[in-house]
Amino acid sequence: MNLAIPLFLIILYSCFYNKLSKIKNANLANLSFLFLISFAIGHALLKHGLSFYYIPIAIIPMLSVLLFNNLEVGYFLSIGTSLSLASLTAEPFKAWFIFMTSCSCAILLVEKAHKRTTVIQAGLIAGLMQLISLVLLEHFWINSPERYLIIMINNLICGVIVLGVLPVFEQLLRTVTNISLLELADTHHPILQRMILEAPGTYHHSLIVGNLSDSACTTIGANGLLARIGAYYHDIGKLQKPEYFIENQQIKKNLHDALSPTMSKLIIMNHIKEGVDLAKKYSLSPALWDFIQQHHGNSLVYYFYRRALEGKEEDQEVTEEGFRYPGPKPNTKETAVVLLADSVEAATRTLKDPTPANIEEVVHKVINNKFIDGQLDECELTLKDIEKISSVFTRILSGIYHSRVNYS
Predict the structure, then answer these.
(1) Inter-residue contact 63 to 25 (CB < 8 Å)
(2) Full set of structural domains in the chain with CATH
(3) Nearest to residue 80, comparing CAs of 63, 56, 96?
(4) Cα(152)–Cα(123) distance, rounded to whole angstroms?
(5) pLDDT tens-digit profile of 102-156?
(6) What is the DSSP string of 121-164?
(7) Which of 152-161, 193-202, 325-334, 394-403 has the lowest mean pLDDT?
(8) Cβ neighbours, 10 Å, residue 251
(9) If you write DSSP's letter for every residue of 12-65 in order, what string do you get?
């Protein structure tokens, strides 16, 4: 049995590999870690003579769905844990059936959970379904009714335990759940408060990018909430020198006019590094660091590159590589959408006549340029996804910049 369990997990992982390999942090080591915790708890309870009704089987499946935001991971761990623990009981089929009923119900109920109460409700409903499955298996014969109370209390405790240990697992697996993301959306977060006071233009820009990204990601089946919160924090590096970014500058004053193109591009590009430093200082989840590092990919800082070309001397060499962001390029759909939304919002803001037709033209031009420049090479966006994203951006931006009737 000691050898069969890890072998079974490895075989099961290989069956799900194509799906799981695309999910960040859902590697064999992390899944084995979660499986072993669940198995160790169940094994300890059984070893001390307790019935399998006492095993809090729903904890790990609920945790896995919340942590990885994916149903396949939850079912993967549920199958492995349920079969392994059921094989240690006197009634393996009954134990497996009850375990899987509870796990399946809990997984479906906590999928995309945005509230802590949803996790508690999931535990209660999973307990009720487990109870019903037990009654059906025993053909409605009520024997030892205290078991039903044990099942209900056990599943309620599962929900409470999941909420208690969730922050610990987020840190261990370097990920973030939807529940934590909503907490980061609170405008009273110290970083967002600083942006409101010190860089209001950047804050407003980030809100629009967040709304664009959320809607676009939802349309293509990506995690809209993650993209929205990632967009809120993607430009926090501008807090170090907010006055050097156009959205925070006074209309008739541009500090870059007094600087060389090389110095200007260093200040602009450095907001990536400073953003990551601030994220570490304020203990933001590493899942948000990707949005800070990847929202420009290795794009060209075109304005200052052009200025450098126009002002260069005969013996001076100006290379395009010297005016590109350090990267990396976006490697998920969510970070890629934020990159596109960031560029599109900035470009649309410069339009003198923001009609729907002009906005649509700018959106297509910006996205095509990013595609041609190779910024989307490392993510999984398809051409169909890109078309949907373009349509969403055009619709939302046209609504923001729609013409108004002058009633004065």
Answers:
(1) no
(2) 4-172 (1.10.1760), 180-400 (1.10.3210)
(3) 96
(4) 8
(5) 999 999 999 878 888 899 999 999 988 888 888 888 765 556 677 788 888 888 8
(6) HHHHHHHHHHHHHHHHHTTT----THHHHHHHHHHHHHHHHHHH
(7) 394-403
(8) 5
(9) HHHHHHHHHTTSTT--HHHHHHHHHHHHHHHHHHHHTT--GGG--TTHHHHHHH
∠ CA 54-138-52, rounded to 5° = 15
- pLDDT tens, 30-88? 888 888 888 899 999 999 989 888 999 999 889 999 998 888 888 888 888 888 888 88
- 172 and 71 Cβ atoms separated by less than 8 Å: no
Distance CA 127, CA 301 (A): 57
Q: Nearest-CA neighbor of 207 among 187, 180, 183?
A: 187
The model scores a pTM over 0.70: yes
Rounded Cα distance between 334 and 331, Å, is: 9
Q: Give the Cα separation of 180 and 275 in Å (integer).
A: 20
